[in-house]
Every structure is written in structure tokens, then in C-alpha cells.
Amino acid sequence: MDGQGSGANEESPLLGHTNGTKSGNRLHKHMTQNINRNWGDIVLLGCYVITGLLDSSAVFIWGAFVSMQTGNTVYLGLGLVEPWAGDRWLKSLTSIAFFCLGSLFFSSFHRYFTPRKRWVLVTAFIIQLACIVIAAAIVSLGNHSADGLHWQVLVPLAAVAFQSSGQAVTSRVLQYGGLTSVVLTSNYCDLFSDPKLFTSGITENAERNRRTAAPILLLFGAVCGGLFAHSPVGLAGALWTAAGLKVVAVIAWMLWAGEPETIS
Q: Cα angle at 213 between 212 and 218, to 5 degrees?
């Protein structure tokens, strides 16, 4: 009996180690697998809600966009003409600068570590989430989140602009170039230039459907952001809501189907 019990005890750690190794290998394989880009436009379209939510509340409270840099460029131009008239142009310049830095960072990150690896996409969205959480925490805990060029304005503004570029880079990574989530002008042009805009069936023109959904979702986010900005929760409420939506995106990439393995 003692010999049998001793034998079982000697094997148990080995079996546990083997099971742990198998689980680790499965997790490693899952995280290093390339994401299947099919239906990836769903997550990108969800990012339009985030953009509308953040841009509408930010431009109402801070006077500058955090995603749509065309508007910020116009504000910058107006400010350069009359720089002493206000500080909006400096906020816009901050947003543009950090959006550009974010584009450089996220594009380099994806290129260096292989663009569509699951862990790369998950990490990129966790970084975006962290930026929004930092901004939300500063706005929630600070007392000067709407005061001119105070750091409690500029730091959250820079953080959110930085993360916004990650969404645009993801659209390139997944080869949905029209779903940057940070611009609609080209989207409107492409939508109404489509020769099959009114003739193709609902399921027959995926590009048209994406171009139609994008402005609707951004408008929905903008309305929600406006409601937040006019409510007691203010900008902080919009930021925390955006953070929650980013969590959903992270979970989506964790569970997303991978590319089928090729048999050599």
C-alpha cells in the first residue's frame, strides 16, 4: 500500500506539470495566432461610437477635438492669425501633436511585432484603454479639468488624442482603410459616389453598408457625448463610458477567431 501511495505521489506533480504545460502552450498558440480579419469591421464600427462620444464631449468642455484632426487644424489656423484671442489653438495643437505621435507609435508597434497577431492587437487596445482611464481619472479627481491650459486639461487631452490614432492604425492593419473612425468626409464622398448605392440589396454591398453605418454610429456617440457634457457627470462620464467600450473591444480581440492554419 505504501509503495502504491508513494508512486502516485511521485507521478502527481509530473501530471500536473504536464497539464500546466499543455495549457500554457494552448494559450501561447492562441495569443500568437493571427486574427482573422473577417467581420473585424464590427469592432472598427464600434470605435466610431467611441470617437463621437469623446469628440463631442471634448470639444464642448475643452474646445478641441481629440480624434478629428481636420477640425483641430482649422482651429490652429485661426489661432495663428490671432494667437492672443484665446487658447483653443494651443489645445488643438496639443491634440494634433499627440495624435501624430500616437500614429507613429502604434504603426511602429504593429510593424515590429507582426500586425495581426492577437497579442499585438490586444496590447494595442489595452494601451488605448489605459490612456482613456488615465484621462478619466484626472478629470474625475481634479478640480481644473476645464480651466484653460491647466495640466488637468492638457494631459487628458493629449492622452485621449494619442489613443485615438490607435483606432485609425487598426483599420490599416485589418485592411479596412475606409473605417479609420476619425474622419467622415471621405466616407460621405465614397458612399454617395457608389454606383450601386440604391440598387444593390442589403447583403450585396458590404462597403456601402459600412459607409452608411459609420456616420450613424458616430452621430449616436456624439449625441451621447453631448448628453454627458450637459449632465452632472460631464466629461468624466463620457471618458469612463469610452473606457468601458474599449474593454469590450479588448475582450472581442481575445475571443476573435484566428486565421485557419495552413497545412504544409
A: 115
